[in-house]
Amino acid sequence: MDNRSNFFKVSALSAAILGVIALPVQASSESAGGDQYVEAINDFISDSTLSGTFIVDTRSRTRTSGGPSGQDGDRWSRLDYSAYNAIVDFSSGYHDDWLGADVGAYFSGDLYNNSKQNDGTGEYLCNEISTCNNLDWGAGDGQQLKFYKAALKFKAGENVDGRFGMIQASGNGTIGNVWSFVPGTYRGAEVNANFGDWKATYFLADQYTAPWLLSEDDYAPALWSDTSWSLTHSLGLQGDATDNLFLQFGVGQTTNVVYATGVDWGNNKVKGYHDSVDTMGYKAYARYKLNESMSLAYDFYGVDDDVKYDGLGFMTGLSFNANFGKFSWMSDLSYASSNNDADVNPRMIYTYGMTNGNYSQWWDALSDWNKSGEASWYNRISYNQGNGWNYYLGFGYGTGGQDSSNSDVVGGDWNYKSEYAVNGTIEYSLLSGALKGTTLRLHGTILERDEFDGAASADETDIRFQVIVPYNFI
Question: Is 306 helix (H, G, I), strand (E, B) or coil?
Fold first, then answer.
């Protein structure tokens, strides 16, 4: 059976389920629990929300190295697919004004897939939209239904709240979420305490899965991502220091992180493992409102990792944002550095997709702009037409990364002197009606790099069309 048939069956089934769930419900006043019980249950139900989002993501991403032809510099489509997510989120009210529950799940799959295939297994390259067998392969092969959120939540008065179960981080501290169209899933707990204009947050977890993976066991099969850890936790403080100044600080730790030393690709196995290490994360963020239309922000995210950085690796940057009527302008400066000149990943576990940090700058421009020593500048001009149409055009340039052909430089996947990217988006959103918020978005990026002598070509292009349909049932 092809993916299109599966898609229509899943859509029909999910619509039927949602139709039943969305029926208005109230507790009977004749309940044996009495009037107070009925009132508590009705508050639980009446304060609840049930929402859904249906998404189709169609993408073609090219690269100039690693193609099937084996010729460096030949452009080829590494990702070429159309995938869907059908997302359902339920958030209850609070029973007796203190206890509630949140549940979220999604169906996913591929409508078509012409991406790179694994020569040995025939699996498609993971596109990170449909569930995959591991971080590298098996797009659309995974179980189609994933519960990404299932948590109990509580309140203690007006100033303390928390959640535990399968949750996401709120981002106050050093721990964030890996995102697709849904966030990844931590098994853990979060507690928030409010003190006037300030909020303190403690978050801890002992397990994580990226949005497109079903189990923490799905990391090791890709070999390069074979990493284990015991506990990640973070303490954060954020609030308004003045009417114009917002501050956020965080410190965190991940214990017993064990990285693979390397991969023997000829024998398809990990060569060995480093001794376990405890990593530390540090976050500092400040945003100052210059006036009603302009703001300036500073962000720092650093990680002390003796294996990956031989000490400290960090990213830091300045962000300027301004609004001029229907036009807006953002200008970001960013800098990355590490003790051993390895590429910097602003999260407490270096391995991709295995927890995340909360560095604020992201330009949707293919590159991570994270070579050690690289200074980058990105500018974007946006226009909101006011009738549902939105546009933006951006340009980024980075230079200063170290040559990893030098044995003293760890480097990363690519080795280049400088890079630049041009990206843009055309978007239309419905402003009214039952499908208000439905969005059609076309996004494109051209990324060019000036490689060091002898390095593999690392240019990329990306074109992406997305249809996003939100709906609130209750």
Answer: coil
- Euclidean distance between CA atoms 270 and 262, whole angstroms: 6
**Exposure letters 371-400 (e unless 16+ CB within 10 A, then b):** bbbbbbbbebbbebeeeeebebebbbebbe
- Does 16 score more than 70 pLDDT? no
Judge whether 205 and 231 are in contact, CB under 8 Å: yes
> Rounded to an integer, what distance in angstroms lies between the CA atom of residue 54 and that of residue 109?
12
Domains of the chain and any CATH numbers: 51-472 (2.40.160.10)
Enclosing H/E stretch for 435: none
Which residue is listed with tokens 């003790």? 339
Is 72 in a helix, a strand, or coil? Answer: coil
Q: How far apart are CA 302 and CA 420, in angstroms?
A: 25
Which residues make beta-bridge pairs with 365?
none
What confidence tier does 1 reach under pLDDT thresholds 50, 70, 90?
Answer: very low
d(CA 406, CA 160): 53
Helices vs strands, H then E, count in the chain: 2, 20
CA pair distance 145, 109, nearest whole angstrom = 9
